[in-house]
Write a structure and sequence with these properties.
Blueprint: E1 25-28, E2 32-35, E3 41-46, E4 49-54, E5 65-69, E6 73-74, E7 86-90, E8 93-100, E9 103-106, E10 118-122, E11 128-134, E12 147-155, E13 158-159, E14 163-164, E15 179-180, E16 184-185, E17 191-197, E18 204-211, E19 217-220, H1 253-268, H2 284-321, E20 324-332, E21 338-349, E22 356-366, E23 372-375, E24 382-386, E25 392-395, E26 404-408, E27 411-414, H3 415-422, H4 424-433, E28 435-444, E29 449-458, E30 462-465, E31 471-476, E32 487-492, E33 511-513, E34 518-519, E35 526-530, E36 533-537
Length: about 550
């Protein structure tokens, strides 16, 4: 039996964009990547391309407005602002782009920039965009920085020239890194997070850029001790090794021509005659000179190889002991106080493929203290969003029956459980309407094989939210037939009247119960009128 998605359809929507407070807005063929901080706009990214959604149109249209763009890919950070500006990139355009007023615009890039320039994140008010400029390509010389971080600041009706962000010239091993990126930024645009990829391309590690009150930028490497947790002594790169002497350097042009002629005859004979050797065409003095050069080379090579092997041991020691930060999976909370990333760990060997598994966990770094909170869920948890107050959202990997979790106070909380603490009606709706079928892989320890077992269960997909978690989206990927991007659900928790914690007593806060009595605080569970709005304290 094949069960399709439970579609509520894109039918008429109430004033707030939601059918009832106990039902979410349902969007077909969508996978929400970002929601604007004010909850008005959303960006969907999937196999059908990029969709820009206006969730709460101000005109009389009772359905949300949308625009589709097949050849655009939104940034890896917060990619949509409160005023509906979306940042993205396109493989068909060397410049990074932004969408505004119904059309795409190119961001300015330097004349020396190559292709693959990216806009990654945008501030809440749309005044600043962060991203990367490609300044060099992949070549034989490893000692070249290929990608540099930058910001574009609003200027007139668009954005000005890119401002390059300060960054280190060398990586942890005193070599030129490959990439230095800027991926996500705080709501005010003053804190930006990115990564440094080392010269060998073995590890990535965090970098944070901060703007002071004078508009000056600086950078720091947060939790730098984690790059070398075993305190390995830094071994400098020994440089290029000695050059092996060549026979031709000790031969006359006539001798080289004679050797080449003999070698061509050897090839034409189909190896029926002996292969010529260089020394067959050299004088005794030339052979002695070559051997003396070879002896000197061997002495230098022995010394160099010892240094090189020590350097390799150091580099591999760093790669093994330091956290393996997943590339581009970095986020910053809108309040600029929490940095989050996905950390990959090589796990046990997969009995089906024979290769080691990769286990993912989410690490949240409190930038105001030394605390690092590590969250895991069966070895498959990836950072997707960080709200204010250090609350993260993690999801299991795309392409699998994905689920989402709230990461808070060192606890990994299932999104349905968390939703039940906010709006029980929403949690009930999820349990009733987000049950999906799929063939689940189950490992049989007796046979050593994976069997496919038909199952139906609640899937919450990949989540993202607004900074205060007042709007939360869940995007369930279609793992049934792959014909579309799945389905997205938008839960307006604020409209449902939920608050995360009881409100303290305040002279500036007007609190009444339903009988009309004015209260000093709202600490007991119940329904209150707080500053003229109905609120539910749980």
């Amino acid at each position: 039996m094949k069960k399709l998605f439970l579609l509520l359809g894109l039918t008429a929507i109430s004033l707030s964009g939601y059918a009832t407070l106990s039902e979410p807005l349902v969007i077909e063929n969508a996978s929400i990547k970002s929601i604007s901080p004010n909850g008005k706009y959303a960006v969907s990214q999937g196999s059908s391309g990029l969709r820009i959604l206006d969730l709460k149109p101000t005109d009389n249209n009772s359905q949300f407005n949308e625009s589709d763009y097949e050849e655009y890919y939104c940034g890896d950070g917060n990619c949509v602002s409160d005023n509906g500006v979306v940042v993205a990139s396109s493989p068909d355009n060397p410049a990074a782009q932004y969408w505004k007023d119904g059309k795409w615009h190119n961001l300015q890039i330097p004349s020396y920039a190559l292709t693959s320039n990216h806009a990654q994140g945008i501030s809440a008010d749309g005044s600043r965009i962060c991203g990367t400029i490609r300044v060099a390509g992949m070549g034989g010389d490893d000692d070249v920085l290929m990608v540099v971080p930058c910001v574009w600041n609003a200027e007139g009706n668009g954005y000005g020239k890119p401002v390059m962000l300060p960054h280190p010239d060398l990586d942890y091993a005193n070599r030129i890194p490959q990439y230095i990126t800027a991926i996500d930024l705080s709501a005010d645009g003053k804190v930006i997070v990115g990564q440094i990829r080392d010269a060998q391309g073995l590890i990535n590690y965090p970098i944070i850029y901060k703007e002071n009150e004078s508009g000056e930028w600086s950078y720091e490497i947060p939790y730098e001790y984690l790059i070398n947790p075993d305190n390995l002594e830094i071994v400098p790169f020994p440089g290029e090794g000695p050059v092996m002497p060549q026979y031709e350097s000790f031969m006359t042009p006539e001798e080289i021509d004679a050797y080449n002629e003999a070698y061509n005859e050897y090839k034409l004979s189909d190896a029926q005659i002996p292969c010529p050797e260089y020394w067959d065409f050299m004088t005794l003095e030339e052979i002695i000179a070559f051997n003396e050069a070879a002896d000197i080379y061997n002495e230098k090579a022995t010394v160099y190889n010892e240094k090189y092997e020590a350097w390799v041991d150091f580099i591999m020691g760093i790669a093994i002991s330091s956290p393996d930060y997943a590339y581009n999976q970095v986020r910053i909370s809108p309040d600029g106080k929490t940095y989050g990333c996905t950390v990959e760990v090589t796990g046990e060997r997969d009995p089906l493929t024979g290769y080691p598994t990769i286990e993912n966990s989410v690490w949240l770094f409190d930038l105001t203290s030394d605390k690092v909170s590590k969250y895991n869920k069966d070895g498959d948890l990836n950072i997707h969003y960080i709200a204010n107050n250090g609350i993260g959202i993690g999801t299991t990997s795309a392409g699998t029956p994905s689920n989402s979790y709230i990461l808070k106070d060192d606890e990994t909380i299932d999104i349905v459980t968390w939703m039940n603490s906010q709006v029980p009606e929403y949690a009930s709706w999820i349990n009733q309407n987000m049950v999906f079928p799929y063939n689940k892989q189950v490992y049989d320890e007796k046979t050593g094989n994976y069997d496919f077992v038909y199952t139906e269960e609640v899937l919450t997909g990949r989540a993202t939210a607004t900074p205060d978690l007042s709007v939360v989206s869940l995007s369930v990927q279609n793992i049934w037939d792959g014909m579309d991007d799945g389905i997205a659900y938008i839960f307006d928790i604020k409209a449902a009247g939920a608050v995360n914690t009881a409100l303290p007593s305040s002279e500036e806060t007007s609190i009444y119960d339903l009988s009309g009595r004015k209260l000093k605080n709202a600490t007991a569970p119940g329904i209150y009128i707080i500053n003229g709005e109905k609120k539910v304290v749980r």
